[in-house]
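Reminder to self: tokens first, then the designed residues, so the page reads top to bottom the way the pipeline ran.
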């Protein structure tokens, strides 16, 4: 299927930097994104889907101005849950933010095929440095909401990706041998602002949890703020 035909697409988004960047890159290719699908797994240790703060992806969809579909997935039925949802929603393309995980890509390829769709992973095989560089160039506001890698301490919870923090992240990843892009659960993020957002997101209340060498931030509530207000407030 040629992207020139402007196919209807559903973006599989967790709210993290990779899925939001993939959505933007697909949009730039001329893909018509008709909705965001967010999987809400019962298993908090899911190998296929992210779990941190996924309920707030609804706010991202509202900010962009497209439909949001939250899909609950019982443990042991995670692939079937997505397949059933895609068959009901009916689109031509499934967009995901996969970069190097063959485990995820092969499954999403198969799920999309069974729903009579194609799977597009715009970030596939990109180098971590290039992904992080593109995030900074696009001025995405990315907050780290979970860390689970040796070398990333509690101070990283709530930090935003900037040129400085990205350079530090790359340095630490070389020293401690974790994935600098976070794929595989080394760290998770949530995107508060990006070019396609009409309004940025502002966390109002968060709970930070830390246990030994890993932790997470739970965003309990957030609000949308128009971007003019943000600019004037600086």
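Designed residues (234 positions):
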């Amino acid at each position: 299927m040629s992207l020139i035909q402007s196919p209807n697409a559903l973006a599989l988004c967790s709210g993290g930097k990779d899925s939001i960047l993939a959505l933007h890159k697909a949009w730039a290719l001329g893909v018509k994104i008709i909705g965001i699908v967010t999987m809400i797994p019962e298993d908090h240790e899911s190998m296929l889907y992210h779990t941190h703060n996924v309920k707030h992806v609804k706010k991202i969809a509202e900010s962009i101005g497209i439909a949001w579909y939250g899909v609950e997935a019982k443990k042991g039925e995670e692939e079937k849950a997505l397949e059933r949802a895609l068959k009901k929603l009916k689109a031509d393309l499934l967009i995901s933010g996969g970069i190097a995980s063959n485990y995820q890509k092969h499954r999403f390829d198969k799920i999309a095929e069974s729903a009579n769709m194609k799977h597009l992973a715009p970030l596939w095989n990109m180098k971590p440095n290039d992904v992080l560089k593109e995030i900074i160039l696009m001025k995405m506001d990315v907050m780290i909401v979970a860390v689970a890698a040796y070398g990333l301490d509690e101070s990283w919870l709530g930090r935003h990706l900037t040129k400085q923090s990205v350079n530090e992240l790359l340095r630490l990843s070389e020293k401690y041998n974790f994935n600098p892009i976070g794929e595989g659960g080394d760290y998770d993020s949530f995107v508060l602002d990006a070019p396609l957002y009409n309004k940025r997101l502002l966390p109002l209340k968060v709970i930070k949890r830390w246990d030994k060498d890993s932790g997470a931030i739970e965003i309990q509530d957030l609000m949308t703020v128009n971007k003019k207000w943000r600019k004037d407030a600086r």
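The domain at 128-233 is CATH 3.90.1490.10 (putative n-type atp pyrophosphatase, domain 2).
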